[in-house]
Amino acid sequence: MVNFRIVSKIIGQLLFLESAFMLFSLAVAFYYNEDDIMAFLISMIATVGSGLIFRYFGRNSTNNMSRRDAYFVVTSTWIIFSVFGMLPYIVGGYITNLADAYFETMSGFTTTGATILDSVEYLPHGILFWRSLTQWIGGLGIVFFTIAILPSMVGGNVKVFAAEATGPIRSKMHPRLSTNAKWIWSIYLALTVGCILSYMAAGMGVFDSFTYSMSTTATGGFSSHDDSTEFFRSPAIEYISIIFQFLSGINFTLLYMIVFKGRVRALFTNSEFRLFVTVVFSATAWIMYLLVTRLDYDLENAFRSALFQVVSFITTTGLFNDDAGAWPHITWVILGACMFLGSCAGSTSGGFKCIRGVMVLKVLRNEFRRILHPNAVLPVKVNGESVPQSKLTTLLAFFSVYVLMCLVAATIMIMAGIDNTNAITISLSCMGNVGPTLGTEIGPVMSWSILPDTIKWICSLLMLMGRLEIMSVLVLFTRSYWKDN
């Protein structure tokens, strides 16, 4: 059975960490001297107090964690982090509905970027900073962050990492997982700092530079203005956003190899990266052509708008510089495909992941070859290495469950009165942690406030499942998980 003592101990320690994150937002609230100071003080006290209670129930526990414990820890951590993360909204009265507050917080931590707020510009700076910070924390994973910064806080590191990591193939840069995590977080931090400085150099204010950079590098999508990146009316800012969204969509292990090992050639020989780039440029060229021929965009504006939206959708960021909901409907299909595919595994983005797309394409190619050569031995190779059959079985299971969950969620939403286009794209958006949708009722520049509370709770669950890649959550609902054997 699950060792609830060690689970309670780890959750208690992680709640202390969450209260420390709130301290940064409290500092922002003090600096601007707005009415969110008490909201953060009360939230921090409640979080620390709850952390002490969890630590008390987890006293005298060992650090011996089973794989079963690890999956329970990861799923429960994301749920509980979101519960306490919504306190500043509730306590401050900025969001009064429980379903709305939880939705907003889960959307932040899972880097989905969907919002129920019709306008964010009335919010105080501390709350706006907290919204962006939740995305930055969740970008590479709550528990993964802890392994990098405070490895002693989480026992059974490898098992926990396996439960939270994304992608079917996980490469390592260093034998020690904590060192591996530190390098990845160093790259993440460097990208964030680079993005902040670039935004400031392009004329963005200091506060906006911090909030938008956290949202950009986490591929989240929350912004401090209702018009997102379009607010600045600056092509330079939009191009900077495109660059850092794109970089954040690349496997961080690959970025490490390029930056610290000087293996630039690895970028061009990597199958996943090649598919990622191919999809981005193909989709951009197609949409650019449609914008020029059907909506009379000039070439530069068409290129910038098309590239921004494609990169935003495929990296599951959700920032926007144009209203894609007003574009020809064929562009919705292209952006929907980008939304489903996502970018690279081992990045901050969501979606199906390009590495799985590569594997699916290679399996299909082998099946066509097998028709002509029934007795041929045709291994599936990715980057020169054979993929074990067990990985291919897992791929099939993941694809089946991913599509099934999207269909079930879309059906429930249609039954709740949501139009077909929105229902499908909402389910895809939540499962892929994308944020924007394509439709008339809830378009890419609109909030999700009109959704019924029941649907918001379902969307929150879909976001969690999408961020933890479905199986880590669904395994908790299987009979075999709760058996003693």
Spell out the key features of this protein.
485 residues; mainly alpha; two-stranded antiparallel ribbon; globular; ion transport; transmembrane helix; potassium
Structure, described:
It is found in: Cell inner membrane. InterPro entries: Cat_transpt (IPR003445), TrkH (IPR004772). Keywords: Cell inner membrane, Cell membrane, Ion transport, Membrane, Potassium, Potassium transport, Transmembrane, Transmembrane helix, Transport. It is a single chain. The protein has 485 residues and is mainly alpha-helical. Helix content is 64%, strand content 1%. It is built from 21 helices and two strands. Strands 1-2 form a two-stranded antiparallel ribbon. The mean pLDDT is 87.
SSE-based structural type: mainly alpha
Determine Rg (CA atoms, Å).
22 Å
Strand order across the largest sheet: 1-2
Q: Give the proportion of residues in helices.
A: 55-70%
Quantity of strands, as a count: 2
State which percent range the strand residues make up: under 5%
